[in-house]
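Study this pair:
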Amino acid sequence: MKLIKLFLVFALLLQLDNENISITRLKPARTEKAFDVSESPYGQGLIVRLYNPTDKPQKVSLTFSAPQINKDIYEPALYCSNPLEDRLEKIPLTLVIDPFDFITLRAE
């Protein structure tokens, strides 16, 4: 039951505008002491992994909400990430995912 509640909370936080794109991972980011993100309602951030299972590039826009601070739409800083959950290059909330490709993102 706890897992179902956690999934429902995360489902409220992120919406995609392309039904062809799958969310394969959505979890809290690992804690980093090197920077302060006290402005973020997501604490240290969220890790989002998206997958394009189609044979064509897919454009997708991510919409975040922050019900814990009564914001229907929240525009976090969004970064490409790696398996260590590092912040890499900053990217826009709308992106194109190549065919059969995964992309890992860090939202703060």
About this structure: Helices lie at 2-13.
